[in-house]
Amino acid sequence: MPQSYFLSMSAGSWLRRSSVHWIKTLSLPWSADPTGTESRSILSWFAIAGQLVLFIALVYLLRLETTALVRVLLVALAGWCVHYFLPQLYRLPFFVLLSFAAIAAVFANLGPNWHHWRFDGLIDAAWIVAIGLVLIGIVHLPIAFGWRVLALVGAGCGLAAARMDWIATPWTRAVWPVLASMFMFRLIVYAYEMRRDQRMATVSERLAYFFMLPNVCFPLFPVVDFRTFRSSYYNADRHYIYQTGIQWMFRGAVHLICYRIVYQRFVIDAADVQDQVDLLQFIIWPFLLYLKVSGTFHIITGILHLFGFNLPETHNLYFLSSSFTDFWRRINIYWKDFIMKIVYYPLYFRFRRWGESIALVSATLLAFLATWLLHNYQWFWLRGTWVFTWNDFLFWMILAVLVTINAHYEMRHGRTRRLRGGALSWNGALQTASRTIGVFVVISLLWSFWSASSVPQWFSVFDTVGVEGPGKMTPALVLVAVAAIIGIPALALARGGADRQYSFQRSVASVGVCGLIAVCISLPVVHDRLGETVSTAMADIRMPTLNSRDNANLERGYYENLVNVGAFNPELWIVYGQQRHDGWDNLDKTPLSEFTGALPTTYLRPLSQADFKGTRVHINRWGMRDQDYEKIPAPGTPRSHSLALRMSSARASRMTRLSRACWSGG
Predict the structure, then answer these.
(1) What sign for the dihedral angle of Cα 528, 529, 531, 537?
(2) Strand-pair category, 39-40 with 593-595
(3) Could you identify which of 383, 416, 555, 603 might form a hypothetical disulfide with 568, taking C-beta atoms 3.0 to 4.6 angstroms apart as the criterion?
(4) b/e map of 436-474 (b: 16 or more CB within 10 Å)?
(5) Which 3 state secondary structure label does DSSP give 610?
(6) Higher-confidence position of 77 and 529
């Protein structure tokens, strides 16, 4: 405005106009750039930042994940507050720098208490970045694509030899799961896209794709598609993208809370199955534990939304799948898209000259065979060992046959479709609900089979309760319970009405209020006043210990063995800040422990004893806090005890490392 304009105004008039100006500035929307293509709002900034603070508080109070996630979330919060006001040209490079900062913060244990900083962890962080840059550079070598693939395979073989400790490395074992989760699948997708799409991606896009901000604290990470990653970047209103991310993060927290409840209260071992109710529990709990994976994946994609990546959902009501192909489309959607792009479609079009049916059947079966092999490939890179079991192979092959039959039927007869927001008739809804119940029962049976210790052990459970295998009809009580739990939500979903129109303000209000209530209940001073039941449930969620099954077996299903870092990588467990219980402080000052000079830094000294915390503590020859045992059981020892006594010293050491998370004094 010209200076003469202000000189002609009275003080009161100027004050009124200035007030109106600032009120408009704080309201929605505020132009973010000269062209007006984006909008900024101080109120929206405060709303989203406030919800993110509530989420961080909830994760911290309930200990839903490792402290590494809290550290990454704090980096994300600080970064997002700046990122929001940056011009779009600088946001992606800033995201890359923020991702590098998160890697350093996690490995160096950076935080308010500088006494706990691990500067040697910066060396591991630097190696992750350096190795990653070399792998990305190989894809862009100025040679034929086939030679680049061979170079990648050669580099992978060298890293695999180092992963198996055949080659000494200057970094610790904590590097492997993080490095593998960044590159073991994304390199495949990236090389595939580089061959098909000649449009050059920017350096920031490449680095952002491989070094995603939340990746450092989640070794089990969704297989994000590179083309989707690029095309989804700020492809909608920015506040809608941000708020969607917040919603997904809170949804992921709900999944993790449900997982904790199931894990503590619902898991039952095969030896404890006595009746039909126990059988239902045994069949269902392994499938329910997948909530851990879907919860973490929601948090991951939610964090990425905060920085403009409008990625699709990773899971969509997979418990309510109405067919086996529907289940394949709903669970781990990113993995399905990855397999379809890399394996299914190339094979389908190659076999198509022999007929549609042959192409569909062959491509589907081979796609599931590739899924089985790639899951073992993933297991190797994250855990450092190979796992080939009949349970694993048969699970994927049976699921492959079911999906193939279902897909062939849909090809011949068509798939029931309805417009978004449309509702089925009562007859159609009842049929859909019935199919949903059947699919849930079959998938639960398959998942329990997958998680069982062995094939004979799984079948023995049905003999225990008088059921001659899963093919025979289970008692009516079991079926009624499943129908009530699954059928009613499936019926409601099929009869659902039109979608409600999105409202940013309504979403902020609902998420903010629910998040605030959850945080308040999570406070000990609050939930202790809500009764013993609530207090006990909150204690189970906040301070989880191994349940009875894992205490006895130290065995879980495929995904549980990959998302629980302490079960396979003690070094990374230390990096993630999951230290032993405070009651064991100063243990290193007693004869019970010995400093190793490496990771893990200390271990229990075999055949030692000392007074600690007012109690006489005994360490047996296997480095375990227990009385001494022989490997060969005494005559007349029960079978369950015999199996426990036959554990090798290596397995006993593994138990010692894993039990760090649940040690208690006394």
Answers:
(1) negative
(2) unpaired
(3) 383
(4) bbebbbbbbbbbbbbbbeeeeebeebbebbebeebeeeb
(5) strand
(6) 77
Instruction: Say how many C-beta atoms besides its own lie within 10 A of residue 548's C-beta.
Output: 12
Residues 6+ apart with CB under 8 A from 180: 163, 219, 378, 381, 382
Cis peptide, bond prior to residue 29, ω within 30 of zero: yes
Length of the chain counted residue by residue: 666
d(CA 108, CA 210) in angstroms, rounded, equals 20
DSSP result, 283-332: HHHHHHTTHHHHHHHHHHHHHHHTTTB-PPPS---GGG-SSHHHHHHHSS
pLDDT value, residue 638:
55
Q: Residues near 7 by Cβ (< 8 Å), separated by ≥ 6?
A: none
Q: How far apart are CA 371 and CA 375, in angstroms?
A: 6
Residue-wise pLDDT tens digits, 339-370: 999 999 999 999 988 988 899 999 999 999 99
Cα–Cα distance measured from residue 27 to residue 308, given in angstroms and rounded to the nearest whole number = 22
257 and 63 Cβ atoms separated by less than 8 Å: no
Query: Cβ distance 368 to 396 under 8 Å?
Result: yes
Helix, strand or coil for residue 448?
A: helix
| Residue reference for tokens 């994940």 | 65
Q: Alpha helices of 452-503 — where are they, by DSSP H?
A: 455-464, 476-482, 488-494
- How far apart are alpha carbons 504 and 44 in whole angstroms? 9
- Hey, what amino acid is at 209? Y
- Please enumerate in sequence order all residues whose Cβ is within 8 A of that of 235, keeping only pairs 6 or more positions apart, or say none: 310
| Count of CA atoms in the C-beta half-sphere (13 A) of 95 | 28
Of 155, 174, 156, 197, which is closest to residue 108 (Cα–Cα)? 174
Tell me the chain's radius of gyration from C-alpha atoms.
27
611 strand-pairing partners: 616
Q: Do residues 249 and 303 touch, judged by C-beta distance below 8 A? A: yes
The amino acid occupying position 425 is: S
Please state, in angstroms and rounded to a whole number, the distance separating the CA atoms of residues 340 and 363.
9
Question: Is 282 in contact with 273 (CB distance < 8 Å)?
Answer: yes
Query: What phi, psi does 602 have (nearest 5°)?
Result: -135, 160
Query: What CA–CA distance (Å, rounded) separates 380 from 361?
Result: 29
The whole-angstrom separation of Cα 167 and Cα 649 is 25
Q: Answer yes or no: are the C-beta atoms of 424 and 494 closer than 8 Å.
A: yes
pLDDT digits (tens, 9 = 90+) for 533-592: 777 777 777 766 655 555 555 445 666 666 666 555 666 766 666 554 445 556 666 777
Give how far the C-alpha of residue 305 lies from the chain's centroid of Cα atoms, to the nearest Å: 16
Q: Could you tell me the pTM of the whole model?
A: 0.78
